[in-house]
Amino acid sequence: MEHRIEKIKKQLHSQSYKLTPQREATVRVLLENEEDHLSAEDVYLLVKEKAPEIGLATVYRTLELLSELKVVDKINFGDGVSRFDLRKEGATHFHHHLVCIECGSVAEIEEDLLGEVESQVENQWGFEVKDHRLTFHGICKSCQKQTVTATTTTHMEQ
Amino acid sequence: MEHRIEKIKKQLHSQSYKLTPQREATVRVLLENEEDHLSAEDVYLLVKEKAPEIGLATVYRTLELLSELKVVDKINFGDGVSRFDLRKEGATHFHHHLVCIECGSVAEIEEDLLGEVESQVENQWGFEVKDHRLTFHGICKSCQKQTVTATTTTHMEQ
DNA sequence: CTCTGTGCAAAGACTTTGCAAAGTA
DNA sequence: TACTTTGCAAAGTCTTTGCACAGAG
Fold it and tell me: What are the UniProt keywords, alphabetically (chains A, B) (predicted)?
């Protein structure tokens, strides 16, 4: 944890940015909620617990800065809110997501999965792949169990 | 073209919706710009040429309706605007996109590519895949040619 | 006549920007 | 001092909603 903060601090410094208390608090929230795909608002509320005087604009600015530095990835599951996801240590590619259309849960897949597909795209379409976004929509394990007996009709948008 | 309008008309009727002139104009714009990934605003401006009296709200409502009927897919390339993409005839899966980070162009891939990956997700994670979104970010063919000699530094956000 | 659909304007949600004040090297 | 960062409030952008009116069956 401290080690990852240090690393981010160095990344900031290397571009002449500072790791201010507000930025550090923001990064800590992201580290403590790595699995959660927080929206800017979510981050703001959590950061406020550590640093009550922080402004929402600062959180937005910090998240944007971290995006530029590729410390976090900005993602969008189609609900009109940007979400922010910390890059894993040493991750070479952007991880994938499984969004459950029943309960809205979001799981992550770290495995690459796309290696072959990417070379196919490069060879067949002449497109030089730099990054990707892959999201599966479907029914998660626990909702499958429930749906066997129940006749749920709850759905999520998009 | 007329045949596809007819089909959509039937789909609407089957759910007790009508294909009003405004809705038809909207569908026609989508059909005529199938490759273009139009935003709601784009669609609005184009529909206005055919039906100047239409309101922006109607376009939004129509696009949402068409999304629900799965006539169009709502996508988001991370620029804060929803874009709308007509489903291809008989398409069983959502097609993929190649977004060029130099020039912003968006190309489509109709090939499935993910069949194997999906079964892997189903088997290994117990997640029942219903749909997917796959977007590659990178450099398109024509930008690659240019960048060989030029030292372009133009970038697109996210 | 009844119910659906429309246009307009207003409201809403999310995000960005301007600016003076505060902090840092 | 010179430069970066912050908080607040205001403005911006995209989208949805409320409502009276028009239209189809």
Answer: DNA-binding, Iron, Metal-binding, Repressor, Transcription, Transcription regulation, Zinc
Is-contact A96 A134, C-beta < 8 A?
A: yes
Which residue of B101, B117, B144 is in closest CB contact with A117? Answer: B117
Residue the block writes with tokens 């690459």: A112
Mean pLDDT of B84-108: 84
Gap between the Cα atoms of B18 and B23, Å rounded: 8
The separation, in Å, between residue A97 CA and nucleotide C14 C1' comes to 23
DSSP, res A16: T
Phi, psi of B36 (to 5 degrees): -100, -10
Distance to chain B for A111, nearest Cα, Å: 10
> How confident is the model at residue B88, as a pLDDT?
80
Quote the CA–CA distance of B58 and B49 in Å, as a whole number.
15
pLDDT band for A153, please (50, 70, 90 cuts).
very low
pLDDT digits (tens, 9 = 90+) for A19-52: 999 999 999 999 999 888 999 999 999 999 989 9
